[in-house]
Protein backbone atom coordinates (compact mmCIF):
# COMPACT_ATOMS: atom_id res chain seq x y z
CA UNK A 1 0.00 0.00 0.00
CA UNK A 2 1.16 3.52 -0.79
CA UNK A 3 0.29 6.31 1.64
CA UNK A 4 0.23 10.00 0.83
CA UNK A 5 2.21 11.94 3.41
CA UNK A 6 0.05 14.52 5.15
CA UNK A 7 1.25 18.06 4.48
CA UNK A 8 -1.72 20.13 5.58
CA UNK A 9 -1.78 23.93 5.41
CA UNK A 10 -3.90 24.18 8.55
CA UNK A 11 -2.34 25.59 11.71
CA UNK A 12 -3.82 22.77 13.75
CA UNK A 13 -1.35 20.43 15.44
CA UNK A 14 -3.90 17.63 15.64
CA UNK A 15 -3.40 16.05 12.24
CA UNK A 16 -4.11 12.31 12.66
CA UNK A 17 -1.89 9.58 11.24
CA UNK A 18 -2.81 8.78 7.65
CA UNK A 19 -4.66 5.67 6.56
CA UNK A 20 -4.74 4.46 2.98
CA UNK A 21 -8.13 6.13 2.48
CA UNK A 22 -7.13 9.56 3.84
CA UNK A 23 -4.78 11.22 1.43
CA UNK A 24 -3.67 14.79 0.92
CA UNK A 25 -0.78 16.21 -1.06
CA UNK A 26 1.66 19.06 -1.16
CA UNK A 27 1.80 20.49 -4.69
CA UNK A 28 4.15 23.44 -5.04
CA UNK A 29 3.72 25.12 -8.43
CA UNK A 30 7.24 25.73 -9.72
CA UNK A 31 8.71 25.54 -13.20
CA UNK A 32 11.63 23.20 -12.55
CA UNK A 33 10.90 20.82 -15.39
CA UNK A 34 12.09 21.04 -18.97
CA UNK A 35 9.46 21.44 -21.66
CA UNK A 36 10.77 19.25 -24.47
CA UNK A 37 7.62 18.47 -26.45
CA UNK A 38 3.94 17.68 -26.25
CA UNK A 39 3.00 16.01 -22.98
CA UNK A 40 0.85 12.89 -23.17
CA UNK A 41 0.12 12.01 -19.53
CA UNK A 42 -1.92 8.91 -20.36
CA UNK A 43 0.90 7.36 -22.40
CA UNK A 44 4.07 8.41 -20.59
CA UNK A 45 5.03 6.47 -17.52
CA UNK A 46 6.73 7.64 -14.37
CA UNK A 47 10.51 8.01 -14.72
CA UNK A 48 12.97 7.40 -11.92
CA UNK A 49 15.37 10.33 -11.57
CA UNK A 50 17.03 9.61 -8.21
CA UNK A 51 17.21 6.95 -5.53
CA UNK A 52 19.26 5.66 -2.64
CA UNK A 53 19.37 4.82 1.04
CA UNK A 54 20.75 6.10 4.32
CA UNK A 55 21.37 3.52 7.05
CA UNK A 56 21.52 4.20 10.75
CA UNK A 57 21.88 1.75 13.62
CA UNK A 58 18.26 0.58 13.80
CA UNK A 59 16.84 1.30 10.37
CA UNK A 60 17.45 2.21 6.75
CA UNK A 61 15.65 5.12 5.08
CA UNK A 62 15.14 4.47 1.36
CA UNK A 63 13.85 6.75 -1.37
CA UNK A 64 13.14 6.94 -5.08
CA UNK A 65 12.41 10.24 -6.82
CA UNK A 66 10.11 10.07 -9.83
CA UNK A 67 9.05 12.45 -12.59
CA UNK A 68 5.34 11.88 -13.30
CA UNK A 69 4.71 11.56 -16.20
CA UNK A 70 8.23 10.97 -17.50
CA UNK A 71 7.90 12.85 -20.81
CA UNK A 72 9.25 15.49 -21.45
CA UNK A 73 12.49 14.67 -19.61
CA UNK A 74 13.94 16.49 -16.63
CA UNK A 75 16.42 19.29 -17.15
CA UNK A 76 20.02 18.40 -16.31
CA UNK A 77 20.09 21.35 -13.89
CA UNK A 78 17.94 19.45 -11.36
CA UNK A 79 20.06 17.90 -8.58
CA UNK A 80 19.42 16.18 -5.25
CA UNK A 81 21.45 15.47 -2.13
CA UNK A 82 20.81 13.38 0.98
CA UNK A 83 22.84 13.64 4.20
CA UNK A 84 22.26 12.45 7.72
CA UNK A 85 23.28 12.90 11.32
CA UNK A 86 22.13 11.00 14.43
CA UNK A 87 18.35 11.01 14.42
CA UNK A 88 17.81 13.25 11.36
CA UNK A 89 18.00 12.79 7.59
CA UNK A 90 18.15 15.81 5.27
CA UNK A 91 16.88 15.73 1.67
CA UNK A 92 17.37 18.70 -0.67
CA UNK A 93 16.21 19.06 -4.27
CA UNK A 94 17.36 22.05 -6.26
CA UNK A 95 17.32 23.58 -9.72
CA UNK A 96 20.65 25.18 -10.52
CA UNK A 97 19.31 27.09 -13.52
CA UNK A 98 16.66 28.90 -11.46
CA UNK A 99 18.66 28.85 -8.20
CA UNK A 100 15.64 27.61 -6.26
CA UNK A 101 15.46 24.73 -3.82
CA UNK A 102 13.15 22.76 -1.58
CA UNK A 103 13.61 19.84 0.75
CA UNK A 104 12.70 18.21 4.00
CA UNK A 105 14.05 16.66 7.15
CA UNK A 106 12.78 13.27 8.25
CA UNK A 107 13.10 11.96 11.79
CA UNK A 108 12.74 8.19 12.13
CA UNK A 109 12.35 6.44 15.47
CA UNK A 110 12.38 2.65 15.84
CA UNK A 111 9.51 1.64 18.16
CA UNK A 112 9.55 -1.24 20.67
CA UNK A 113 7.34 -3.38 18.43
CA UNK A 114 9.61 -5.07 15.89
CA UNK A 115 9.46 -3.67 12.34
CA UNK A 116 7.50 -0.60 13.44
CA UNK A 117 8.69 3.01 13.13
CA UNK A 118 7.56 6.54 13.87
CA UNK A 119 8.24 8.91 10.96
CA UNK A 120 8.02 12.71 11.06
CA UNK A 121 8.65 15.00 8.08
CA UNK A 122 9.48 18.66 8.66
CA UNK A 123 11.19 21.66 7.07
CA UNK A 124 14.74 21.35 5.78
CA UNK A 125 17.60 22.28 8.13
CA UNK A 126 20.46 24.11 6.43
CA UNK A 127 23.57 22.12 7.39
CA UNK A 128 27.17 22.83 6.29
CA UNK A 129 26.92 19.90 3.85
CA UNK A 130 23.71 21.28 2.37
CA UNK A 131 25.15 24.78 2.07
CA UNK A 132 28.22 23.32 0.38
CA UNK A 133 26.01 21.49 -2.12
CA UNK A 134 24.63 24.93 -3.05
CA UNK A 135 28.10 26.26 -3.70
CA UNK A 136 28.56 27.77 -0.25
CA UNK A 137 26.21 30.63 -1.09
CA UNK A 138 22.84 29.46 0.20
CA UNK A 139 21.74 33.07 0.74
CA UNK A 140 21.69 33.52 -3.04
CA UNK A 141 19.16 30.73 -3.46
CA UNK A 142 15.39 31.01 -3.09
CA UNK A 143 13.62 28.47 -0.92
CA UNK A 144 10.26 27.35 -2.27
CA UNK A 145 7.22 27.65 0.02
CA UNK A 146 6.78 24.79 2.46
CA UNK A 147 2.99 25.14 2.54
CA UNK A 148 2.44 23.14 5.71
CA UNK A 149 5.77 21.40 6.08
CA UNK A 150 6.54 23.11 9.37
CA UNK A 151 4.68 20.93 11.85
CA UNK A 152 3.11 17.84 10.27
CA UNK A 153 1.99 14.97 12.46
CA UNK A 154 4.16 11.94 13.04
CA UNK A 155 3.03 8.67 11.50
CA UNK A 156 3.52 5.11 12.66
CA UNK A 157 4.37 2.74 9.82
CA UNK A 158 5.56 -0.82 9.41
CA UNK A 159 8.77 -1.69 7.62
CA UNK A 160 8.19 -1.69 3.87
CA UNK A 161 5.20 0.69 3.88
CA UNK A 162 5.68 3.23 1.10
CA UNK A 163 4.95 6.94 1.61
CA UNK A 164 4.44 9.38 -1.26
CA UNK A 165 5.61 12.99 -1.03
CA UNK A 166 4.53 15.31 -3.85
CA UNK A 167 7.30 17.90 -3.96
CA UNK A 168 6.97 20.06 -7.08
CA UNK A 169 4.45 20.50 -9.87
CA UNK A 170 5.02 22.23 -13.19
CA UNK A 171 1.70 23.79 -14.23
CA UNK A 172 2.83 24.21 -17.86
CA UNK A 173 3.42 20.48 -18.40
CA UNK A 174 1.31 18.94 -15.63
CA UNK A 175 4.35 16.99 -14.41
CA UNK A 176 5.23 16.41 -10.77
CA UNK A 177 8.40 15.50 -8.90
CA UNK A 178 7.53 12.89 -6.28
CA UNK A 179 9.50 11.11 -3.57
CA UNK A 180 8.51 7.54 -2.69
CA UNK A 181 10.08 6.64 0.64
CA UNK A 182 10.12 3.67 2.97
CA UNK A 183 11.80 2.51 6.19
CA UNK A 184 13.22 -1.00 6.44
CA UNK A 185 16.17 -2.73 8.02
CA UNK A 186 19.56 -1.09 7.30
CA UNK A 187 20.88 -1.29 3.76
CA UNK A 188 23.95 -3.19 4.98
CA UNK A 189 24.51 -4.95 8.27
CA UNK A 190 26.81 -7.55 9.77
CA UNK A 191 25.63 -10.90 11.08
CA UNK A 192 28.54 -12.34 13.00
CA UNK A 193 31.51 -12.07 10.65
CA UNK A 194 29.32 -11.92 7.55
CA UNK A 195 27.94 -8.86 5.85
CA UNK A 196 24.46 -9.23 4.35
CA UNK A 197 23.90 -8.19 0.71
CA UNK A 198 23.03 -4.54 0.14
CA UNK A 199 19.29 -3.89 0.16
CA UNK A 200 17.84 -1.73 -2.62
CA UNK A 201 14.45 -0.07 -2.87
CA UNK A 202 12.55 0.36 -6.10
CA UNK A 203 8.91 1.33 -6.60
CA UNK A 204 6.55 1.40 -9.57
CA UNK A 205 3.57 3.76 -9.09
CA UNK A 206 0.22 3.54 -10.87
CA UNK A 207 -2.45 0.84 -11.19
CA UNK A 208 -1.29 -2.73 -11.67
CA UNK A 209 -2.09 -4.62 -14.88
CA UNK A 210 -1.26 -7.81 -16.74
CA UNK A 211 2.25 -8.22 -18.13
CA UNK A 212 2.74 -7.60 -21.85
CA UNK A 213 5.65 -8.18 -24.21
CA UNK A 214 5.96 -4.40 -24.60
CA UNK A 215 6.67 -4.17 -20.86
CA UNK A 216 10.13 -5.70 -21.28
CA UNK A 217 12.24 -2.73 -20.27
CA UNK A 218 15.61 -1.38 -21.24
CA UNK A 219 17.59 0.27 -18.42
CA UNK A 220 20.42 2.72 -19.04
CA UNK A 221 22.52 3.61 -15.98
CA UNK A 222 25.55 5.93 -16.04
CA UNK A 223 26.13 5.52 -19.78
CA UNK A 224 29.40 6.03 -21.63
CA UNK A 225 28.94 6.54 -25.36
CA UNK A 226 31.56 5.88 -28.04
CA UNK A 227 31.16 6.62 -31.75
CA UNK A 228 33.49 4.58 -33.96
CA UNK A 229 35.59 3.93 -30.87
CA UNK A 230 35.90 7.60 -29.85
CA UNK A 231 34.47 8.49 -26.43
CA UNK A 232 31.76 11.16 -26.32
CA UNK A 233 33.06 13.22 -23.38
CA UNK A 234 29.62 14.73 -22.65
CA UNK A 235 28.30 11.26 -21.73
CA UNK A 236 30.86 10.97 -18.91
CA UNK A 237 28.90 13.55 -16.92
CA UNK A 238 25.83 11.29 -16.70
CA UNK A 239 25.38 9.14 -13.61
CA UNK A 240 21.58 8.92 -13.66
CA UNK A 241 19.30 6.13 -14.86
CA UNK A 242 16.38 5.82 -17.27
CA UNK A 243 14.22 2.76 -17.83
CA UNK A 244 11.24 1.98 -20.03
CA UNK A 245 9.75 -0.03 -22.87
CA UNK A 246 11.78 2.22 -25.16
CA UNK A 247 14.73 4.45 -24.35
CA UNK A 248 16.11 7.26 -26.47
CA UNK A 249 19.58 8.69 -26.92
CA UNK A 250 20.22 12.19 -28.21
CA UNK A 251 23.64 12.62 -29.79
CA UNK A 252 24.88 16.01 -30.97
CA UNK A 253 24.85 16.39 -34.78
CA UNK A 254 23.11 13.01 -35.09
CA UNK A 255 19.63 13.59 -33.69
CA UNK A 256 17.74 11.07 -31.58
CA UNK A 257 17.86 7.26 -31.63
CA UNK A 258 14.91 5.40 -30.10
CA UNK A 259 15.86 1.89 -28.93
CA UNK A 260 13.61 -1.13 -28.41
CA UNK A 261 13.90 -4.84 -27.70
CA UNK A 262 10.64 -5.39 -29.62
CA UNK A 263 10.77 -5.22 -33.47
CA UNK A 264 7.88 -2.71 -34.08
CA UNK A 265 8.32 -2.67 -37.93
CA UNK A 266 5.00 -0.84 -38.35
CA UNK A 267 6.59 2.19 -36.66
CA UNK A 268 9.76 2.14 -38.72
CA UNK A 269 12.11 0.40 -36.29
CA UNK A 270 14.74 -1.83 -37.84
CA UNK A 271 17.21 -4.32 -36.45
CA UNK A 272 20.48 -2.44 -36.08
CA UNK A 273 22.41 -3.92 -33.17
CA UNK A 274 22.44 -6.01 -30.04
CA UNK A 275 22.40 -5.82 -26.26
CA UNK A 276 24.88 -7.89 -24.24
CA UNK A 277 24.74 -7.51 -20.48
CA UNK A 278 25.77 -3.96 -19.58
CA UNK A 279 26.65 -2.85 -23.11
CA UNK A 280 24.85 -2.30 -26.41
CA UNK A 281 26.01 -1.62 -29.94
CA UNK A 282 24.17 -0.50 -33.06
CA UNK A 283 25.21 0.58 -36.54
CA UNK A 284 23.69 3.39 -38.56
CA UNK A 285 25.24 4.12 -41.95
CA UNK A 286 29.01 4.14 -41.58
CA UNK A 287 28.96 4.78 -37.84
CA UNK A 288 29.04 2.32 -34.95
CA UNK A 289 27.57 3.46 -31.64
CA UNK A 290 28.60 1.66 -28.44
CA UNK A 291 27.08 2.31 -25.04
CA UNK A 292 28.70 0.87 -21.92
CA UNK A 293 26.60 1.30 -18.77
CA UNK A 294 26.77 0.79 -15.02
CA UNK A 295 24.35 -2.14 -14.91
CA UNK A 296 22.46 -4.78 -16.89
CA UNK A 297 20.54 -3.19 -19.76
CA UNK A 298 17.98 -5.92 -20.51
CA UNK A 299 16.41 -8.57 -18.26
CA UNK A 300 17.58 -12.14 -18.52
CA UNK A 301 20.94 -13.76 -19.17
CA UNK A 302 20.91 -13.87 -23.00
CA UNK A 303 22.09 -11.41 -25.67
CA UNK A 304 19.20 -9.67 -27.47
CA UNK A 305 18.61 -8.03 -30.83
CA UNK A 306 18.26 -4.25 -30.68
CA UNK A 307 15.79 -2.34 -32.88
CA UNK A 308 16.39 1.33 -33.62
CA UNK A 309 14.37 4.24 -35.02
CA UNK A 310 16.44 7.26 -36.06
CA UNK A 311 15.00 10.81 -35.97
CA UNK A 312 17.90 12.91 -37.33
CA UNK A 313 16.12 16.27 -36.99
CA UNK A 314 15.09 15.94 -33.33
CA UNK A 315 16.68 18.33 -30.84
CA UNK A 316 15.95 19.08 -27.17
CA UNK A 317 13.88 22.27 -26.94
CA UNK A 318 13.97 23.07 -23.23
CA UNK A 319 15.56 26.36 -22.16
CA UNK A 320 19.37 26.54 -22.31
CA UNK A 321 19.64 23.05 -23.82
CA UNK A 322 23.17 22.09 -24.84
CA UNK A 323 22.63 20.80 -28.37
CA UNK A 324 26.13 19.29 -28.46
CA UNK A 325 25.72 17.20 -25.28
CA UNK A 326 24.59 13.59 -24.94
CA UNK A 327 21.11 13.18 -23.46
CA UNK A 328 18.73 10.31 -22.82
CA UNK A 329 15.21 9.49 -21.70
CA UNK A 330 12.57 6.75 -21.69
CA UNK A 331 8.89 6.08 -22.25
CA UNK A 332 6.57 3.15 -21.81
CA UNK A 333 5.44 3.27 -25.48
CA UNK A 334 7.20 4.56 -28.60
CA UNK A 335 4.03 6.30 -29.79
CA UNK A 336 4.53 8.95 -27.10
CA UNK A 337 7.90 9.86 -28.64
CA UNK A 338 7.23 9.65 -32.37
CA UNK A 339 6.18 12.93 -33.93
CA UNK A 340 2.99 12.88 -35.91
What does this structure look like?
The protein is globular, with a radius of gyration of 21 Å. A hairpin with a 5-residue loop joins β7 and β8. It folds into two domains: 2-195, no CATH class; 213-336, no CATH class. The chain has a nine-stranded antiparallel sheet, with no helix packed on it. Strands 1, 2, 3, 4, 11 and 12 form a six-stranded mixed sheet that branches. Strands 5, 6, 7, 8, 9 and 10 form a six-stranded mixed sheet that branches. 2% of the residues lie in helices and 43% in strands. The protein has one helix and 25 strands. With 340 residues, the protein is an all-beta fold.
Would you summarize the structure shown here?
With 340 residues, this protein is mostly beta strands. The protein contains 1 helix and 25 strands. The strands form 5 sheets. Strands 17-16-23-22-21-24-20-19-25 form a 9-stranded antiparallel β-sheet, with no helix packed on it. Strands 1, 2, 3, 4, 11 and 12 form a 6-stranded mixed β-sheet that branches. Strands 5, 6, 7, 8, 9 and 10 form a 6-stranded mixed β-sheet that branches.
